[in-house]
Input
Amino acid sequence: MKPGQRLWTREELILAINLYFKTPFGKLHYHNPDIIHLAGLLDRTAGSVAFKLVNFASLDPSLKARGIKGASNSSKLDREIWNEFYQHWDTLPFESEVIRAKTEHTTIEKLNNISEDELPKEGKERERLVKTRVNQSLFRKMVLSSYNSTCCITGIQQPEFLIAGHIRPWGLDEGNRMNPRNGISMNALHDKAFENGLMTILPDFTIKISSLLKSKNNPQAVTEYFFKYENKKIILPDRFLPEISFLEYHNQERFKP
Output
């Protein structure tokens, strides 16, 4: 360690990995306003924060699969924090937002734009609702950042049209609700088709359309919006490739051939 440098703490690393998961890979640089903001909160340089995020990139298996190495000098604590998140998607993402709110000297509700009018005043039900809303918001940010706010079917890049959908449903697999490899970015129409088994994605990332749509009364629209995409590959994310076992589940248990 160079003179004057200080070690990163566990909380600082949790804040850094929180930002890593929400930042598109191409924006992991010291000019990024979000990185500059976090650097100010941590009393560090934007360069040091950006470099730490690139250290996390070196641990990302999806990037390794694409031949992207990231920085090669991640610390033991970097690896520990990374592994904690990968093994505890059900708890660590929310903890990172709690730490972020504390560091920002605000509440987790304000930080995530949750209106007090939508919540009970106190109690377990409030805690449950806040955690659910925070997790849903964070999951969307993680998934859309991985896909660069792009629909993986059509290439549409209008965030208002996009859904961060689950491959294994939210209510079915609690442990993977927050796992971004269980997420996929689609426009609302194709997300609804995927959710209802009228479309699936094969383990080789090929799009498959249900034959049930062929019998519908508007063949031109069905062809335009669905069958022209059949047997094409989805637009892959920069990070967090869809988990193959989750796609296999959708093919076998949800898809209606």
The chain has a mean pLDDT of 90. Residues 145-254 form one domain.
